[in-house]
Write a structure and sequence with these properties.
The protein is an all-beta fold and 216 residues long. It has an 18-stranded antiparallel beta sheet that branches. The chain is elongated, with a radius of gyration of 19 Å.
Length: 216
């Protein structure tokens, strides 16, 4: 995610207060490592994160249901392309988001297994705002797309889901990024593919060469 004229309150992880002139010993960029106001993340650094321990990434057929696909192993990779002074908006180029199909299961009637889940049309651009807002967008003229291959009682099927963008949040409490019920529309696939998908996942910790990343 200094010494001033008067004493400053300590800034705890998760606190998004903007630092004043008295905090000049701290990095003043949106993304830092180690702590809030820690070392500035350099442009070109590669950020990675697995799913938060004990959580799953899900693609369910409704925003409130539990029918669909669940995976316990996933990871994203992104390269920092801009890290301006805080408060502001840092940008990243998402070059990879993987799902280990061996960790994926489905409870959809007639589906017996998950062969693969592939995130298409990469790279995407992520805008990380100081207030904790995240927006993921595709390249101009493209779309966010996920291709799901399933094994069914009737054979193998391929389901393609698309979304114009994704929104999420970052948290300094556990240096996580969170997506909740992000809506995808089925654009092709068998009638056994659910007509819409809702993606939920929590990735943590976000790290830069092993150091936790904070949003300032």
């Amino acid at each position: 995610m200094g010494v001033g004229a008067e004493a400053k309150d300590p800034v705890e992880p998760g606190d998004r207060r903007v630092r004043g002139a008295g905090d000049q010993s701290a990095a003043d960029t949106v993304l830092t490592t180690g702590s809030l106001g820690g070392t500035a993340v350099a442009v070109g650094d590669v950020l990675t994160a697995p799913l938060a321990s004990g959580t799953s990434a899900t693609l369910y057929s409704s925003a409130t249901g539990t029918s669909g696909i669940k995976c316990t192993t996933s990871q994203f990779t992104a390269t920092v392309t801009d890290n301006p002074t805080a408060p502001g908006t840092a940008t990243e180029s998402v070059s990879g988001q993987s799902f280990d199909s061996s960790s994926c299961t489905s409870n959809v009637l007639g589906v017996t297994g998950v062969t693969s889940i592939t995130v298409d049309n990469l790279p995407y651009t992520t805008a990380a705002v100081s207030d904790g807002t995240l927006t993921v967008t595709p390249a101009a003229g493209s779309t966010i797309q996920t291709t799901v291959k399933l094994t069914t009682l009737l054979g193998s099927i391929t389901c393609v889901y698309q979304a114009p963008s994704l929104t999420g949040t970052s948290s300094n409490t556990d240096t996580s990024i969170n997506f909740t019920s992000q809506a995808f529309t089925k654009t092709s696939g068998s009638s056994l593919c659910f007509s819409a998908g809702y993606f939920t996942a929590k990735y943590a910790p976000v790290t830069d060469n092993g150091a936790a990343v904070y949003t300032n």
